[in-house]
Structures are given as C-alpha cells and as structure tokens.
Amino acid sequence: MSSSRMITVILTLLASLAISATTHSQDINDRLLSAALSGDVAAVKDLLTKGADAKSKQGVAALGRAAMLGHTAIVQALLYRGADVDGKDDGGVTPLMLAATWGRFAVAQALIAKRANVNAKSDIGNTPLILAVGGGDVAIVQALIDKKADINAKNKDGETALIWAERLGHTAIIQILREAGAVKAETTNPAISPGLTSETESKRANLKGAANNAKETMRTEVQAVQPRYRGNWVGKTNQNQSIQFTIDEQNRVTELEVKVIVQFFYNQSCAYSYKIKDPVPIQDRQFDVDLISSAPLGYTDNTSPRIRGSFTSTVAADGSVNQFRVGLAFCGGSMIMGTGVQVGPVSWSAERQVQCATLGTISPNSGRVGSSVVINGTNLGDVTSIKFPPGIPAKFTANSDTQISMVVPSGAASGTISTSQDGCANKETSAFTILESPVPAIASLSQDLIIVGKPGLTLTINGSNFLNGSVIRWNGVDRATQFVNETQLTAQIPAADVASVGKAAVTVFNPAPGGGASSALDFTINPPPNPTPTLSNLSPDAATAGVRGLTLTITGANFINASVVQWNGQDQATTFVSDTQLTTQIPALSLAKAGVVTIKVFNPAPGGGESNEMTFTINRKQTQAQTRGQGRKPVQRPSQRPTKKQ
User: Fold this and answer.
1) Using CB atoms within 10 A as the burial measure, which of 134, 214, 312, 394 is most buried?
2) How do residues 533-544 score in pLDDT, each as one tens digit?
3) In this model, does residue 548 exceed pLDDT 60?
4) Which CATH number does the domain housing residue 543 bear?
5) Is residue 185 part of a domain?
6) Do 513 and 592 share a domain, yes or no?
7) What pTM, to 2 d.p., does this model score?
C-alpha cells in the first residue's frame, strides 16, 4: 500500500474515532430516552450506572415521557440520579403537569414527594391543578390541593381549575375545589379545553364537543362505544424521517412505514425504509409497533426497530382523535468505520386525513318523537352531528363505523335527516316521516303527598301512551323526565317545588305532532305536624268555690296558635300568648262547687294531641257562723269551773 493511501486510511479512522468519542455522551443519553419511552426499567438503571446523564436534555425528556406514560419506577430512578423534578420541555411543561394530565397518580405522588413545584406554569399558563381537572383525576386534584396548590390560579385565557371542572361536569372535583376555597372567575376563552401546548389547544378547539356551548351540549348528546381512530395518517419528523400508517375499523395500526435518512460525517447519508411486521391494537391511547427493514439503500441492516406512539390530545366527544405523538425509539444501526449510528428519539405530529361518510338505508323510515332510528353506511364513526328537519339536533350513538342509532328529537318534522362531519360536506338520508304522538294518560303517582320543606323527591308516574320524549309537568312547568317505558316515567322534583303548603297539579305532555297534555292528578304539600304540648305550671292553681271567675295562666311548652285549654275535658276559649304560655277565662259557674278539676291542653292534627294533666283545686266556702266563731275565747263548762275552797 502506498504511503499516501495509508495516510488517507489512518486519517479517516482517526476522524471516525474522534466522532465516536464526542458522540458517546449523546448516544448513551439518547438510549436513556429510548429506554424510558419503552418502559424498560432495567435498561434505564443500567444506562444511568454506565454514565447516562439524568440532568441532560434527554434526561429531562426521559423524566417527562416516563411521567406521561406512568412508568413510576423509571421516574424514581431518574430522580435518584439527579433529574430536574421541575425540568420543562419546549412548551414549558413539567413532569408533574404530564402526570396530572394523563392521570398518573403514583407518578404524581413520587414527583410531589421530591418537592415538585405544584404551582409551576406552562408557556400558556396552565398549572398541574388545572391540567389534573382537565384529566378528571380526583385523587391527583386532592393531592395537589393538600400540597397548597393555588386553587384560583389562572392560565393566559383567564381560566381557573373551577371553571374547567364546571365546564367538564366533574361534580366531585367541583365540590373539592369549592370546599378548598375556589372562587368563580370570568374567562376569555370558554370554548377550548385545557392542554399542554398552544398547538394542542388550537387543535382541541376543533374537536366535537369542546366548542359546544352549554345549551347545545344539553340538546345534542354524542355517545361513543369506544374511541375510534380510523383513518390514514402521514407526516414528517423533525429529523427528515417520514412516517405514514393506517388505522383500521378494529382500532389496529396497519400499513405503517417509516423512511429514515441517516446523516453521517463527511456529508455521507444512508436511506432506510421500514414497514410494520404485524398489525397492532391501540390500547390506552398507546401503541408499540415492530418494524422490519424494507429495501435498504446502500447498506444492509438486520435490526428490528420499534415505533412507539401515543396521543397528546384527549379523545373527542364522538370518540375520535385528530393528533398523534410518535416517538421513533430506534432506527438504523449500520456500522461504518466502527461507529454505531442511531437516529435518536424524535417527535412527530400529524393530522388524520378525512374520510367522509356515505349514507345508506334508514330503519325504520317513520316513527314518533322519542322512537329509535338506525342509519347504515360507511365511515360513520367520524360523524359529529345529526339533525332532523328543521335543523333539530338528535342524540346518537355510533355503534360501529357502518351504523349509527339515534332518537327522534322533540320538535322534529318529516323530511331528510342530515349528518355533519368535519372537513366533509353534509350528507342526507332518504325521507323520514314523523308520526303523530298519542295523548298520554296518568293512572297513579308513586307518592301524592309530602310534608312542606322536605328536600325533594323522585316521582314515578304510571299510566299509558308515554313516549321517549314525554315530559312531566309540575303546575304546568316542565321537569327533567326519565323515560322508563310506555307506561312509566320518573322525574326529579326539587325542594323548591314542595317549599309551600298547598296542592300541585301533575300532568304529562307528549310533543307534537299530535300529543298534548294528560289530565292532572293532585299532589298535596302538607304543613309540618303539630307538636304534643306539655304543662309545667298553673297560675293560680286553686280558688274558693263561689268566686266570680278568674284568668287562668298555663305555662308549658309546644303551644301553638290553635292550642285549646281543656277544663275537666271541656274546651275553653283560649288565648295564645307564646309557645310556652296560654291564658283562659274560667267563669264563676265553673267555680261554684268545691272539688278538683283536671287541666289539659290539646293541639289539633296533624300531629298534636293532649298534654300531660295538672289539677286545679276549688276549696269549700266557709259559713258565716264559722266566720264569727273565729277569734272568740272558748266557753268554760260547769265541770271546768273551779270549786270554792272548803
């Protein structure tokens, strides 16, 4: 070999070794992040022992991803090796925020134990508490509050945790926040749900259900059996990799392909193409895909890399999702001059390509308000709303990607049913005929009386001709009604409806066409039961026979305005003074003869009854002779006179 050729080879080898030395730290830290993404606890601990830096940029990312994915042991290992417990990603999001968003309670506990900042804010101002509310995790919310999280902290849209709890209907969390001192505040952005980045926020604004106001949400209810991710997905990573895949009707990732361009020194590059080995299901918003090399260009490669994907956005009200986050855990592996080349973990986001629905038959093609209707077709899983003429939203459930069931809404008219879908033109079915509703009839009430002031009740109405759209009315006002079957309805009657004594008219109303109100049954609201009176003192409690009458004062308890004093069982005209005192006038005729009189007090129904008994004494009147004899000296009898001294 010539000397010039030898020098060239040596220089090339030295350059390779230099690059290997300078990239070793980067390489081991990249592998640390890959191990954290895959949930490999043993690999994470081994890499940390071998010099991987938990404080590096990859270490911060590894802690955040492990927190998001719920890998508690990895989180603890990274923290033990000095990872920044409050390290932020590009969006200013901390590991605790990720754990709160994804409902990882054990991870949140571990981070809080290491004194994670419970009041940290992301770039858009969200705190861990706001994000925990968005995720609906009661345990994490309580844990953050226990650690003095700012209950009333606002993000940049002026939104607080309480605003989001009320908007999302998290009743238990609302109570916890209010008990902890949360106050209602105005927001400048009521339509978008809390998220981690401004990009995620803007995408969530387009999801079905997130942009609906409260009234529309009450009118239109979308129910999904399971999340649906069906669609074609394409995108480019931030390191020149392209990724594309399809999700089928069974929520499986299929036809996934990754094309990688690996950049080497001296401006050399190598392209690889990998394809999925087998379809894999999506579980808990995550998927792991094994790939095989396909048509490598320039170099052979026998490695089997892996793709890990997860969602950054919540599932929409209709079960769909429009954004994925995919981590390229490993790719490449060719050897050039002894240098191992890996494309480290990258992130990629892509929007699903729209697949518009096609509508087929409807069954049945006629029915009353409240009846069920089924639409058959294709790509129905992405339908966001269904309306009957004249634009009345219907409650519906996507049974599958080829079938939707719905309920004919109140106010619907005959005509075509229309479906809406983001990014697609509205579609219409064949004509549906609305049949007239019957007039309902009430036979009985489960309860027809109550004591005033009670906390309310669940009222069951039995009868006939009830519909899914029937409404129970209380004195002509609609009450929230639950349809049980054609002969039974239930409604929640609030405390305000039974707060006053009287009668309420209960009716059932069936919507047009046809329909109307039933005859009424009365519901009685009774006053509270009267107490039983008790006596403790009479004043006076005695008199002399023949007096001209007196005022008798009765002292005791539980007297009411209708209390009556009884004199030997006879009602007396009674004056109510207070709940502890009554008076009555006892006439001379009642005091004419000596004796003992029984005194009672009677309270009328409901409740009430007789009191305990006390006695009033009428003493015998003294005669005139008895009166004159009082005070005179007694007359001495002859036998009592002293004899003369003999």
Assistant:
1) 134
2) 999 999 999 999
3) yes
4) 2.60.40.10
5) yes
6) no
7) 0.42
